[in-house]
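Hi D.,

Good news: the full-assembly prediction came through. Inputs first.
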Amino acid sequence: MSTLHNISENQKDIKLGPIATLLVGDKGGQRLIMALIALAIIFPFCNLVFPQDSFLHVSTYTLTLTGKYLCYALLALSVDLIWGYCGILSLGQGAFFALGGYAMGMYLMRQIGDRGVYGNAELPDFMVFLDWKELPWYWFGFDQFWFASIMVLVVPGILAFVFGWLAFRSRVTGVYLSIITQALTYALMLAFFRNDMGFGGNNGLTDFKDILGFDLQSSSTRSALFIASALSVVLGYLISRFITTSKLGRVLVSIRDAEMRTRFLGYKVEYYKLFVFVVSAMMAGVAGALYVPQVGIINPGEFTPIYSIEIIIWVAIGGRGTLFGAVIGAIAVNYAKTYFTGAFAELWLFMLGGLFVMATLYLPKGIVGFVRDIKQGDGISNRFYLLFKNKVSTKLSSKGSV
Amino acid sequence: MAMAIPKHLENAPILYLDGVSVSFDGFKALNNLSLCIEPGEMRAIIGPNGAGKTTMMDVITGKTRPDSGTVSFNHKELNQLDLTQYDEAEVANLGVGRKFQKPSVIESLTVFENLELAQKGGRGIWQALMHTLTREKKQKIQNTLELIALQDKAQDLAANLSHGQKQWLEIGMLISQEPELLLIDEPAAGMTDEETMKTAELFKTLAKTHSLVVVEHDMDFIAALDCKVTVLNEGSVLAEGSLESVQKNQQVIDVYLGR
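Then the structure:
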């Protein structure tokens, strides 16, 4: 038996906890989780403890912005799980994110109570405006936090199940699947734009006041939401890692690389795809639910097909099939977006497109793959790195000789 | 299921194709094909390109549904089954293993993981999620590794294997599935002479415990297998018998060997 196997057997002798076992040999994941936990402690601490003029103070704006990025990171993680490991290129992941967001938005809407513009304790403002007399049946239960929380998982989960069951059973794969996922999110966008749908139409759901009785504008609530977001990314990472390191994860990789072969090995490919698609949709739903109270609004714009494509770009740039690469990609691209849309707004979409093209051509394994290649000393990105290094060093030495 | 005859027939053929026809856009890939494989038999199938060899494999393994005809499979416990009623995964789990012409191993997994994936049992989602390798299962994989002479490569990515090694790994995966019937498509393609002969030896060993159907073009390889040969042409059986008798058959010489 090779040495590698002996090592893994030795490691089993030292009793590791279930979580530690998941992270054996996953340096990137270990660092990511430590960074997220540190962030979850430091940011809220610096926001709440240090006075506003202090050098160490983290503004509530920065806190909320970073919290938003963490939600995107969870969303990217959900995409990497299906795309990076199972080859399902969903260009409609934003739909599940938005549905989770709407479920949370409905709860926050009901929390407003009689503090709305019309002061109607039973009906949200937009329903009063539309002259509706009573709450539609599908709003029942959303005044309860526990019910809304379940719906955050169940609604995206059921949609993914029904959609996936139809698509995977009919063996729709590749670009065809990508196109119908785009159609899915587009159709939902059009539906949610309609006033009669009962989700606030064009304006969506907004003017939220509080969550579980805590004021949404206060720094401490924002801090709590931030911590919840960071911990959700940690939990999402651990769940994804559990799935991808199990035998099921290897079946997923096998489906990605050779779907027909996997069938002939006796695996029901459609069930495996369905499972991971539903898990991923639920993760996206949770991301949406944490996003809405932090940004204070959810509207049909979240279903826009281009948003779903953007998620793919985050994952591609971060490095698909690595999980923590998705998190890095989501945070890096969104920081860049915030900066560049502020500095040169019209150019951002061109830059995003350019970034995607560059990543596809020169960083096929994303940022994570690039760093890995340099460390291991192989791969296309390392050749570029060496070329660059040689040029710099020859320049330096020629300068030195002159 | 569809064709369950209650009693297990001890001496019934393990595989019986009865009047199978398949057409693609009017082209008859299989034309009333009938074929019988006895339990424990090794059978070589030859024939010119387009004779329907791969389509026949597709029909047996549930990839292609025939327009007419049945494929009876004599399962150990479930008795006579009509394989045309099942999909690829179900046929595989009933005990029919298939090896493709092109070596198709999972390149981004290690040799060990490829074999683990192929190992019989645990096809359900929950079983796969909670799967742990028992000592016994590990030992089985180890035995397979030795059989296919890849024990030194256990932790290498399958992508880094040579062509011949990939073929062997795929054969190893097939064995790990513990099928009763093995369908093997051009195993010797792209192998060196030495590897070809080794493979023939391996199949002879396998034939002691399995039924085998081997599709091959390489006459030396078929000679080394030393078994009954079926010649397919235009979707049906042209001739059947020992390699010698088939090679003397004028029809076979005309459509295949003489060219």
